[in-house]
Amino acid sequence: MLRSLLPALLLSSTAALAEVPRVATDIAPVQGLVASVMGDLGTPALLVPPGASPHDHALKPSEARALQEAQLVIWMGEALSPDMARKIDAIAGEAAALALFDLPGTRHLATREDVLFGAADTHDEDHDAHAHDDHAAEDGHEDHDHDHDDHAAEDHGHDHAHGADDPHGWLDPQNARLWLGAIAEALAKADPDHADTYRANAAAAEARLDEAVTTARATLDPVQEARFVVFHDAYQYFEQAFGLQVLGALRLSDATSPSPARLAALRDALEAEGATCIFAEPQFDPHLIETVTASTSLPVAELDPLGSTLAPGADFYPRLIEDMAQRIATCAQG
């Protein structure tokens, strides 16, 4: 169970209803999931704005204030944001925290050591995908708590290459579906008077997500044979969820710049391997894409795993799934 919130929820002098907890979230997809569960009761704060990298974002004063005031922090976890645990400790040390990527049942995929036209991955196949119950039990996350002291003592440094598990787990809609229930229970514990509302909102959000997945599958069905190149290897959860084929990635992580040899290999292989489309991302330098595609007719489109062009709100996450599917299909179909 989550740690009790600060210090006890306030009671109105005229009503016995608990105050809706102040909630902070790290990235827009998480904010969207939380917003769908909170509904009309409140709006979760966003700590990593559109266009910023969650790996190393420095909080602005307004964001730090939102974290300081939060009674509940819902975030992806240290695999995505290595420094966020220290920020929670330093700024909102008494807040309860829910790290979604650490929840039991969450699907984890191993970080691929290379994505370059069939390059071998050194991970064993039976370790490529696993539910995270074993890690959760080992780390004490079965009660959805966040041990600030342990994380504060760790030194994560500033190397943001991915660890053993690919941290982009929000791009698996089944993970998001699982997390909606956990978010509802976290809010219900913090605010028992609105527990039924949170649970009903989560059920409605699950139904809306199912619709989005159905729409995305129909959108992507005509391009199942298409072969894509992406800016960095952030999409394997989405690939596996929807049966897509990614030939290569310019960058293996958010911090690893591609070598000239890698760019040359991509450039030489694009047409030979039958690439259909290459995707840029708004957070990264477009000149790298231009370097690879300069001598080809390969179409270029923008794909953003954080959905920076989408409006925030309760419908953000299903729209992210639909928008990504539509962008992929449009580029593949020319």
UniProtKB/TrEMBL annotation:
One of its GO terms (molecular function) is metal ion binding. SUPFAM superfamilies: Helical backbone' metal receptor. Residues 124-169 have a biased composition (Basic and acidic residues). Residues 124-170 are annotated as: Disordered. Transmembrane segments: none annotated. It comes from the Bacteria. InterPro entries: Bact_metal-bind_prot9, ZnuA-like. Keywords: Ion transport, Signal, Transport, Zinc, Zinc transport. Residues 1-18 form the signal peptide. One of its GO terms (biological process) is zinc ion transport. Belongs to the bacterial solute-binding protein 9 family. This is High-affinity zinc uptake system protein ZnuA.
